[in-house]
Known about the structure:
Chain A is of the alpha+beta class. Chain A contains 13 helices and twelve strands. Chain A has helices at 12-21, 34-39, 74-79, 81-86, 88-95, 100-105, 108-112, 119-122, 164-170, 188-191, 273-279, 286-296, 308-318; strands at 5-8, 25-28, 47-50, 58-60, 66-69, 174-179, 182-187, 210-216, 225-230, 241-249, 255-263, 270-271. Chain B has 211 residues and is α+β, with helices and mostly antiparallel strands.
Amino acid sequence: MNPFDYLQADNASNAVKLASAAAAGKYLGGGTNLVDLMRETVERPDTLVDVTDLSRRIEARPDGSVMIGAAVKNTALAADRTVRRNFPLLSRAILAGASGQIRNMATVGGNILQRTRCTYFYDEASRCNKRDPGRGCDAIDGFNRYHAILGASPSCVATHPSDMCVALAALDAIVHLEGPEGVRMLKLVDLHRLPGGRPDIETELRPHELITDVELPALSFAARSTYRKVRDRASYAFALVSVAAALDLGDDGNVKDVRVALGGVAHKPWRALKMEAALRGRAATEVNFRAAAEGELSDAAGLRDNAFNRTRQADDRCRPR
Amino acid sequence: MQGSIQLEISRRVLLISSAATIAVNGVVTRDAAAQAAGSQMNNTEVSFVVNAESRKLNVDNRTTLLDALREHLHLTGTKKGCDHGQCGACTVMVDGRRINSCLTLVVMHEGDEITTIEGLGQPGNLHPMQAAFIKHDGFQCGYCTPGQICSSVAMLEEIKANIPSHVTENLTAETKTTPTEIRERMSGNICRCGAYSNIVDAIAEVAGTKA
C-alpha cells in the first residue's frame, strides 16, 4: 500500500473541499473494496477522505419515496422496516451479496462505486485496459465465467459486481451528488457507463463528485418484488446472473406494469427495458416470460466460459417459484 | 520513553493550537492540525477501547485494524487468513457488530469499542460459545476458530436485532434462529478443515435451538 493522508469530513461540502485540495484524493466508505485495492496498489490515492460520518439516515416520506444517506450501512438498509415491506427486492438484493461482516462495514455510496472483481483487473501481472488503458485485456481469452454477455466491448468484458445496484436500477433510483460545481442528480441507470474504448472511465461522475444520498421514488407495486441470484456456491459469491423484478398484475391476469434489471451480465446494472416492454399488457404466463427474456438477450454475446449464462438467465426468470 | 511521550503530546498540542487560529470554518478532521501546518502527515493517533481497556496508538495510516491488533497490541488471537475479506479468520466486533478487521483501517476506529477473542473469554473463564465449540469439537486445526467464535456471537445478536438474511422467508416477520439461518449467516467464515457441521451444532446449542 502506498502512503496517504487520512482526513475525516463531517459534511458533504467539506468532504468535497478536502478531496479537491489533494492531488489524488479519494472518498473512503466502509473500505471493503478500496482498502483491498490499495493493498494491491491498483488504487493509489495520496489522500483518503473518510465520509462514513456523513448521512446515515433512512427517511421514509409520506409520498412513498425513501431517501437513503450514502453512509448508511448495507445491513441497516436491508433491515429497514419500510424497505423490507415496500421494496423487498432491495432488501433481498443486499442480503444476497457479500457476507454478514462485509454488509456491516459497506456503505450505500461505496457499494455503488465498487470496482469490478475481474481477476485480471486485480492482478498487476495481467493486461487490463481498465487498470492500464491501452494495454489489452487478458480476460477476453482467459477465464471469463464471470464476465459480461451484454454491452461489452473488445476492450473490456468486466461486470459490475453489485447486487444492491441491480435492485436500485429496477426501482429507477436517483443518485444525489455534490461536487465542486454544486449539487445535481443522476438516475442510477445513467451513473455507470458501458466500457466502449475507455473501460477505465466507469461512471459519469465529475472529478471529486460525492454521492450524498440515494432516493427511491414511490412505486406502488414494488411490494410485489424479489431478487434472485445464481452463483457457484450457495452463499458468499458473486453473481453468475441475478434478477431484480417487480410485477404489477391486473385482475385479468395480465401484466399492468413490470420492472426488471439484471446483474452479473454487464459492465453496469442492466435494466431490461426490452423485456419490460414485451411484457406490458401481456398475459403473465411462462411462455410470455420466456419470449420476453429471449428478446432482452437477442444481443447477448458469450465468451468461452460464460455462454451458458444466456440460457441460464432465460430459464431462471421463467421458472415459477 | 517518558520524554518522547511528552514530546509527542506537546507537538500535538502545538499543532492543534496553531491550526485553531487558521482553521477553515466547519472543516473538522483529526488531521486538521497536520493539514493546517501544511505537512504531509502519514501517521495518525487513534484512541479506542479494546476488550474494555483504553488504548492509544500512533500508527501509519496504512495499518489495518487487524495489523494494529496483532502487531501493535500483540493480541494475536485474531488471525490473518486471506487478508482480502474472503475467509473471515480476522473477524472481530466493533461496537458489538462483527466486521473483517483486515478490510478496515485502524484510523477509522477512533472512539470505537473493539472486542476480540481475548475479550470474549479466557482459559478458566470461557465464553459459552468457546465452551460449546470445545464440547462439539467445532474445529480441527483451530486457525479459523477465533473468527468463527467472534462471528457467531455477533451473528446471534443480529438475529435478536431482527436483521434478516438471504434465507429469511418472510421479511416482515421476526427473524428466527434455525440451522438454515445459522449456515447462511456464517458463510463469511471459511473452515478449510471442514468442521462446519460441528460448528453449527455448537452455535445452535448456545442459541438454544436444535441443529
